[in-house]
Design brief:
Blueprint lengths: L2 E12 L2 E12 L3 E5 L6 H9 L6 E6 L2 E2 L10 E4 L11 H11 L5 H11 L15 H13 L5 E5 L7 H18 L2 E6 L2 H7 L2 E6 L2 E6 L1 H6 L4 H6 L1
Parallel strand pairs: 3-8, 3-9, 6-7, 7-8
Antiparallel strand pairs: 1-2, 1-4, 4-5, 9-10
Helix pairs in contact: 2-3, 2-4, 3-4
Length: 233
């Protein structure tokens, strides 16, 4: 199994504050990898550095063996699902999913959008607007919009946080099953220990901009490497 994503001594410093403080990670291809930690630990900033929304103060981001520092977001083979889904309210579900394909001038858009919506169980709801969809359905549109671009890595920034507890548990199962079906590397950011432990193949526990431990859910839960990990889990 190859490496989809590698971070080498990645750092992002602001005046008087290191949001990300020299982290190094290797994320295997085709797995479900979570960045877990409390609010303000640097996990979302790490995601933004990978996506290209921010440039690092130091360190490198490698995707599929290529250094991507300095590349714009659309030049990186990643897609991002945001916490608020970031759907266009004036566009239908079909048009929201098609947007990235249209911007890139890609062909066979209708067939690709249809396949993506079927993948996330939204067939028949193509003509609905975000306001006509439930929270779970809006999340599925956001997933389809990212997956239709066939990224190497799908970045998910607290995608379940806005859902009610019952729907959140349902979507955990659906997300994990979706990842297995498509075989794309998922990098999932969460502050929720249960989410990370139940969904992930591997977890990096973060605190104060640093990685405290990397391992399987069983390893980090049963054999915490630091006092922080033991207390947080």
């Amino acid at each position: 199994m190859g490496i989809s994503l590698e971070l080498r001594n990645l750092a992002k410093h602001y005046p008087g504050h290191a949001a990300v403080d020299g982290i190094s990670l290797q994320i295997p291809q085709g797995g479900f990898f979570s960045l877990l930690g409390p609010s303000g630990c640097g996990k979302t900033t790490t995601l933004r550095l990978i996506a290209g929304f921010e440039e690092p103060t130091a360190g490198e981001v490698w995707l599929s063996g290529a250094l991507v520092n300095g590349r714009r977001p659309y030049e990186r083979n990643v897609s991002t699902v945001f916490q608020n889904y970031a759907l266009f309210p004036h566009l239908t579900a079909h048009a929201n999913v098609e947007f990235g394909l249209r911007e890139r001038g890609l062909r066979d858009r209708t067939a690709r959008v249809r396949a993506a919506l079927e993948l996330v169980q939204l067939a028949g709801k193509e003509s609905r607007y975000p306001s006509q969809l439930s929270g779970g359905e809006r999340q599925r549109v956001a997933l389809a919009r990212s997956l239709v671009l066939e990224p190497e890595v799908l970045l998910l920034d607290e995608p379940l946080a806005a859902l009610d507890p019952k729907l959140r548990k349902q979507m955990r199962i659906e997300l994990k099953e979706l990842q297995r079906r498509v075989g794309i590397t998922f990098l999932f950011v969460t502050h929720d220990q249960e989410e990370a432990l139940s969904m992930s193949d591997s977890i990096a526990v973060m605190n104060h901009g640093r990685v405290e431990q990397v391992g399987t859910p069983e390893e980090v839960y049963l054999r915490p490497a630091t006092r922080f990990v033991a207390g947080f889990l």
